[in-house]
Amino acid sequence: MTGAARGSAVRIGLLGGSFNPAHGGHRRISLFARDALGLDAVWWLVSPGNPLKPKAGMAPLAARLASACRQARRASIVPTAIERELGTRYTIDTLRALQRRYPKLRFVWLMGSDNLAQLHRWRDWRGIARRMPIAVIARPGYDARAAASPAAAWLGRYRRSAASLTDRAGWSAPALIHLRFDPDPRSATAIRRADPDWASHFSGLAQRDPLTHHPVDPDTA
Question: Of the candidates 5, 2, 13, 7, which has an alpha carbon nearest to the alpha carbon of residue 171?
């Protein structure tokens, strides 16, 4: 049942990333987070370019969006390249823009523990934390580094349970929610190693953004 049907605001999880390519692990953690947090949907923010990742080896945006659409089929997952339209490069700017564009939606930021470990390197990371709850999904090999990170130390005083999001007051921020589930070994890096030309499978395909319904040029870098 959707948030609108329950008489409450629609609840959206935001999962940002390169999705280079998207894979079943992204789908699995998204559906897990949806169920654990009582979300109506998860939006995959397919980044035009991650400032913390090298451009070398990055497939065109249209190919990455197409791979995300394939993985999201028949699920309450909405891949989108909306950051390209918003003209934002940093997460803090994207979140501000999304909250302005969709003022009636409630958002929670989803990230793996590998990202929590480096969150303090992100532009205005405290501003991100003050904008919406952050749910961190455990990833093997990163939990210790995440727990020792400056961001985790600062956010530690704001720890909450997943159940807290069932109440309206639970959506106040800052809020840090830890989610744990069975590890998923799949990774985009492994897929690229096994198939360096994976993006060619989507070459030349016309792609329409599932959220904005605007076309994405297949030659978009």
Answer: 13
